[in-house]
Amino acid sequence: MDREAPEGFEQLGDNLGFIDLLAPVYRRPGPPPTVGMFVLPKHTNLIDICHGGVLMTLGDIAAAWAVNTERGEPLPAPTLNLGFDFISAAREGEWLEAEADQVTVKRRVGFASGFMRSGDRLVCRFSGSFYLPDPGAFKANEERLAGMFASNVSSAGD
Fold first, then answer.
1. How crowded is residue 154: how many other Cβ atoms within 10 Å of its Cβ?
2. What sign does the CA torsion over 137, 12, 150, 140 have?
3. Which of 4, 41, 128, 133 is deepest in the core (most CB within 10 A)?
4. C-alpha angle with apex 59: 18 to 127, nearest 5 degrees?
5. How crowded is residue 28: how many other Cβ atoms within 10 Å of its Cβ?
6. Which residues lie below 8 Å from residue 26, measured CB to CB, with a gap of 6+?
7. The pLDDT of residue 152
8. 86-104, pLDDT tens digit by residue?
9. Which three-class secondary structure state does DSSP give residue 62?
C-alpha cells in the first residue's frame, strides 16, 4: 500500500521506540496538532479491523503532543491515565486522524481529550492525563528525544 498522506502531514522518522511499530506515522502541526496513519495489515486483528491497541497508541501520541504544544515545551509527557470509547471500526487502507479538542496544563499534569476519525466517521474518543517533569529529567535520552520533537520528519512523499 503506497498512499500519500493528506496535505500538511509530515512522516515521523524512525528510532522513536514503540512508535516505530506503527510506522509510518504522520503529524501535522496545529492548532490543533494532529497525528495520522493508514491502517496497514500489521495493524489489524483477527477480525480484520484495526486493533484497539493501535488506536490507543495513536490517541496517546495525539493527546501527549497536544499537551506539549499547549505547555510550549517539547518534552516527554509520560501517560498517567488513558481512557477510550470505541465507536466504530477502522479497516485496512483507511486513513486515521487523531487530535485533541480540549487541553489543560497545570504545573505537573496535563490533560487532553479528543477524537479519532476516518473521513467523516468518528472511530473513537479518548482522554488522558500526562505527567509533566522538569526539563532535564530525561537527559539520558536527549538524542532520541530531539528526533521526536525536532526535525525527525520527512515530507509525506519521501
1. 13
2. positive
3. 128
4. 130
5. 18
6. 5, 9, 10, 11, 12, 35, 36, 37, 156
7. 43
8. 999 999 999 999 999 999 9
9. helix
What number is the average pLDDT over the span 2-31? 89
Residue pair 109/130 in contact (Cβ under 8 Å)? The answer is yes
Could you tell me the three cell numbers for 137? 529529567
The secondary element (H helix, E strand) that includes residue 153 is strand 153-155
The CA-based angle 104-25-3, given to 5 degrees, is 135
Residues 6+ apart with CB under 8 A from 131: 77, 78, 79, 80, 108, 109
Place of cell 501535522: 28
- Which amino acid is it at 10? E
Joined together, the cell numbers standing for residue 58 give 495513536
Instruction: Please name each of the domains of the chain with its CATH number.
Output: 10-146 (3.10.129.10)
Q: Give this prediction's pTM.
A: 0.84
Place of cell 479519532: 116
The x, y and z cell numbers of residue 5, run together, are: 498522506
